[in-house]
Fold this sequence. Notes:
Elements: H1 2-5, H2 8-13, H3 22-25, E1 37-38, E2 48-50, E3 57-59, H4 62-67, E4 79-85, H5 97-101, E5 105-108, H6 119-122, E6 128-130, H7 133-138, H8 146-152, E7 159-162, H9 171-184, E8 189-193, H10 195-206, H11 216-227, E9 228-234, H12 266-278, E10 283-285
Parallel strand pairs: 4-5, 4-9, 5-6, 6-7, 7-8, 9-10
Antiparallel strand pairs: 1-8, 2-3
Amino acid sequence: FCNYILRLSLLVEGVNDGFLHNCQVSKSTCQGYTKAVMTQENTPVGSQIVYDGAKGNTSVTSDIFDTLAKKNPFSSKPWDTCSVVGNGGILSNSTCGEMIDSAQFVIRCNLPPVESSHLKDVGKKTGLVTANPSILNQNGLLDRRRPFVDSMSHYKDALILLPAFTLSKNIQPSLRVVYTIEESLSPIRPVFLNPEYIRNLHSFWSSKGLNKRLSSGFMVASLALELCTNVHLYGFWPFDQHPLLQQPLNNHYYDNIQSKKKVHAMPDEFDHLLRLHEQGVLKIHLGECV
């Protein structure tokens, strides 16, 4: 924690003008965003999908093919400004909502609340939102589906990124989400995260010293570097004390439920993000937004 405090003057003062070209950060995945999600163009019927979270594979059946996006949603020109919003407690009382929503594209993680009580701090604009496996398995949609549909309405027509092919057990929960969205005529657009893209991302960051499974927040921050010219991170602070105000923080801006620390290496991920901030590749926001 103290090592980060010594480097926080950069975070308060901002970064140097100009951003490094995205491909300088991740040459192994440059243009990888074209395969970040599975589509009918890049995943025809009969394709073999190798799970990225465990050994095993499955074939693309016609039923699965019909649930895939017809075209790559990221095929157009990259956005100029993107906000990537983590769920860290540091967002509480940050007044960053307006600044977050001012970006052309906003990415959120793990279906976070964006109701009016959080609007001032986190905003509500959403272009893409992730849903991790634990959330899908907790809400298997085997019973009443209306609460899930109602909760999705806060994201309007955003893309919802589903981890269907991380493990075999995630396929059916992800498909139930797709079918629920279709049956309810919700405007939200489900897409499946491509395990090939995840493997390439893990391979790149493993070569940089990150050997544990990447968190969803770190994955979409990496994706944003390929999609956006100027990337701004909010809510990325993996410690329980505010770096500037020296006060205790909840784990999330909406609750204090602790994460499974053995699965991800959040401080190590933050260290890499901090290096990218210092190089001017992205900008991390930790103080109040004024």
